[in-house]
Amino acid sequence: MHALHQDHVEPWSATTRFQPVASTGGVPLMRIAERHGTPAYVVDEADVRERCRAFRAALPDATILYAAKAFLCRAMATWIRQEGLGLDVCSGGELAIARSVGFPAGRIVFHGNAKTPHELLEAVRYGVGRIVVDNLAEIVRLAALVPPGSRQKILLRVVPDIEAGACAAVRTGGEGQKFGLSIATGDLAAAVDRVLRRPELELAGLHCHLGSQIGAAEPYGRAVRVMVEQLARVRDTHGVVLPELDLGGGQGIAYLPAEHGLTPAEYAATVLKALEESCAELGLPVPRLSVEPGRSISGPAGLTLYRVIAVKRTLMRTYVAVDGGMSDNPRPSLYGARYTARLIGRAATAPDREVTLVGHHCEAGDVLAENVPLPADLRAGDVVAIPATGAYHYSMASTYNLTGRPPVIAVVDGAARVVVRREEIDDLLRRDVGL
Question: Which residues are catalytic?
Fold first, then answer.
């Protein structure tokens, strides 16, 4: 991205620096640790905004929808709105956050493979721009909720049968997954027929989503070809040319220094070429394209601060235990995700050695990062930072072992502010109504 500083190094955010002191957004990270405690999520607002702009620049004629499941709070929803992006939500809670900041309903797409009747009703009442229908039963259920004289625009989620993603748990485009309408079984064809017969619903287009943490653009090119074939089939069967195609998200990011994310420019070059060629071959007008980046916008913008509690040397390895863990970052235990870490707050006086960074939970699997080079003189009280924690950390955090969730601290232009406060013991006790 053109606006990234020349000192920017993956996987740290655009404004993170380590000289003369470790800082993000012009704010010393130790100041955040001292004022707000640890663990703490730090989000680089400038980085978020620049990544939004990079997608808009790469795809100027497309609709860019931020995938809220990656990370959402009121501040984030506001930044997304101000940058002119739409919002992809997949729950009533995410929709409520959007509504609370006045996010334009027409720029919201509502997802979900098992939306509850209440969620569908709230989406219709708010007037969301598109609802993505995931199964045949949802068609009748949704149509019954649309007020007389109104029409709800929908997209049908297609199973393109393309496997892509960092691991099996985040691959969502294949026949073996719970999402979408299968081409092979005839469910997609049946859904198109049923929707076109419902005056309450307007079929705006087709949707697919391949998976998450996809590092290459090639699978998206294949998906485009499958989806354009289905658009042509709708035209040939029903005489209807659908105007929209939503390719979902899943663009990968760097988590380790040697890694590189899939840039918006690389993604756009492959997708636009495939779209133009496929439409030309089948005699279709090029549909309005929508994409749903989530992790690739918020992920690199985040880092997490932890304080070292203990350093333990066993016969096999050195463990560095910190005051957070799988409750604020479940990705290593869920997906085998790998991270790096860096000591901040003081200069090391010893060379690096490989350690295992672990959390404070009563689980053998509570490991944040393995084989991480950290100074051999690391000691209790030190603070370490882990980068690329802006996606699927806050949003997947839990209160395991009745541990409160960390705060979210936004930084920009030398100022830091709390956008989500720390969850305290009193918060946990308040929900427990007693005997």
Answer: 362
